[in-house]
Amino acid sequence: MYQYVAKYLVLNKVFRFFEKAIFPSIIIGLIGFLLASYLAIYVLPADAEQKEIYRILFIHVPSAILSEIIYIFMAVSGFIYLVWRTKISAIFLNSAISIGLVFTALVLMTGSIWGKPTWGTYWVWDARITSTFILFVQYIGLLALRSSFSSHQTADQIVSILAIIGAINIPIIKFSVDWWNTLHQGASITTSGSSIDSEMLYALPIMLIALLFISFAIFGRNIQFEILNRSSNTKMIKEVLNG
Amino acid sequence: MIRKNRLNKIFIIVSLLISLTLILYSILRALETNIDLYLTPTQVESGEYNIDKSFKLGGMVKKESLKQSESLEIKFTVTDFNKEIEVVYIGILPNLFKENSGVVASGYLDKEKKVFIADEILAKHDETYMPIKIEVQD
Question: Which of A15, A48, A94, A160 is the most buried (most CB within 10 A)?
Answer without folding.
Answer: A94
